Amino acid sequence: GRIAIAVDTSGSIDESLLNRFAAEIAAVLEKTEPLLRLIVCDADVHQIYDLSGREGAELLRGFKFRGGGGTDFRPAITEAAKWKPDLLIYLTDLEGDAGDDPAFPVLWAVPEGKAAAPWGKIIELS
Questions:
Q1: What is the pLDDT of residue 85?
Q2: How far from 92 is each of 1, 96, 108, 109, 119, CA to CA, in Å?
Q3: By C-alpha distance, which of 80, 89, 72 is closest to 123?
Q4: Gap between the Cα atoms of 40 and 47, Å rounded
Q5: For the chain, what is the largest distance between any 2 Cα atoms, rounded to a whole number of angstroms?
Q6: How far apart are alpha carbons 78 and 18 in whole angstroms?
Q7: Is the dihedral of CA 63, 53, 48, 7 positive or negative?
Q8: How far, in Å, CA of 29 to CA of 104, rounded?
């Protein structure tokens, strides 16, 4: 399937959480080998990459995410919608404006204890 993964790189996300996010994305690539679009966003989209399989997972080793500003989930959701994904996974701490529920399923992957989302489903990263 087509999976979009958005990574929140706002100022509230520290380096250790970004590394955790990269490891989660690599695991998705290695286990399922989907067609994957990576969208890096704080209040604006900064990077977009199409990844697949083990080569994509290797690219994430030492990957430098751009961002560090405020948080707005809408630009990444809009960017994902252009690609028409079967699913959007948003790696975030949920501190931002989400706007309206898009026409595709959204899974919020969040640190433990951040389990309130405006819509979609939540998985907690333990």
A1: 96
A2: 22, 9, 7, 6, 14
A3: 89
A4: 5
A5: 34
A6: 22
A7: negative
A8: 20
**Rounded distance, CA 6 to CA 96, Å?**
13
> Does the CA dihedral 16-65-74-51 come out positive or negative?
negative
State the pLDDT at residue 28.
84
Distance between CA atoms of 125 and 114, rounded to whole angstroms? 10
The pLDDT value given to residue 10: 94
Predicted local confidence at residue 113, as pLDDT: 81
Ranges in the chain, pLDDT < 50: none
pTM over 0.70: yes
**How far is the C-alpha of 85 from the C-alpha of 81, rounded, in Å?**
7
Pairing status of strand 35-41 against strand 45-51: antiparallel
